[in-house]
Amino acid sequence: MPKRGDISVRSALTIHRGTANQSQKSRLVLVLGVDAPDAQNAERHDLQFTRAYYETIPKEYQKHFACRIVDELKPIVQAHTIEGLVMGEA
Q: Which of 34, 45, 50, 69 has the largest count of CB atoms under 10 Å?
């Protein structure tokens, strides 16, 4: 069975599959995408790392992240829509 910290890889289109959340707990989701080096999508996704966390990432990996380094994480606004996916509605 999956445990906290495990990783599951799939299309973001399948997350929750539109199923209602029957519990009182939020179902938080992190969608981490991978683009080809020439895809030029970073500006639409606004990946953020806190400075403290970013400094724990080995230097050879840091260069692969197109991201903002911030003191505190801020909510992001999705820059694109996916047809048929309604965000924040039950």
A: 45
